[in-house]
Amino acid sequence: MGLLFLAAGNKDFLLLELISGRLQVRLDLGSGERSLRSARGLHLSDLEWHTVQLNHTQNNIVLTVDQHSPSNLRMPGPDLELNIEEGVLVGGTAGLNQSYLGISNGFRGCMDKVVFNDRDLLSNVQLYSGYKSTHEVSMGCSSQFSATEEDTIGFSSSKAFISLPPWEVLQEGVFECDLHPSAKAESGVVLYSSGYEGGFVAIEIRDGHLVISVGNGKGSKTELHSLTNVHSNHTWYPIQLHLLPHSIQLKIDKELVKASLSQELKVIPLKGPLFLGGLNEKAVVEANDSGMSSVASGGASFTGCLKNIKVNTKRTGLPQATISKDVNVGFIFRFHVLRLNACPH
Q: Which of 41, 93, 298, 329 is surrounded by the fewest CB atoms within 10 Å?
């Protein structure tokens, strides 16, 4: 889901976005905003390519998906021209501040042949930086956008991460995955989720061992340390973090460790995104303020692979990601012996 196209004016605008698998057009030519949605039977969030055509002729708006099932809208007069003083945007708002934008998110996925009034907006994007700007855009279509929950996710840089929707922990919550760190002994964040007033839950790798931290942002914090060294064997480690009302427990391979929670830590409602493999810039500041030592030492991202990810027993992964950075499907990373390898199955 997210914003696909925006022709932005001071008051006039034309906005095309994907919401829960359906397209929505919002349009204001100066005589009031109107909206139009694609047909109910067409679901676009299916990992397939789709063609979209939007025509504006006088009062008439026609939205067509895959060359059939057109949706129609008639705009009120007398204004029929679209004034776009702010320019044209594809895939996001680029920080544009207009009241008509609402809470439109950037689009995650691939687009090709984006044509507006006979102009190909994606042609030679990198060549015309004087009047075209890009942010977190790459040429081609990454395999992560056709990935499923069964695919392995690789984290290959110090800034790599994926962001999932918030982790709902009411009375208890469970996070599970298989973890395969790189052979290079580095610290890093495996999981991080923030709560209100500085509260958080995190999984870090410190000196080869997993460390669970639960804090309330007011000085109370509990840490749970595993004895298993995940860098001692180049293999997969199944891990499970179980948050209970009065305790936390971590299972890694055959090891199980537990810790009781103080009264101050028994209720930490989580509200922020669920970060896996690393953090964005804002979360790095939060985690640093929380005293997470792997972040303080500069090891914000975990280098390695995750697979079989489950949140509260439900399978999840790249299809549910709201943001991803420097990740690969299957993942290739560099061992200390300077060989390139993919994560094993």
A: 41
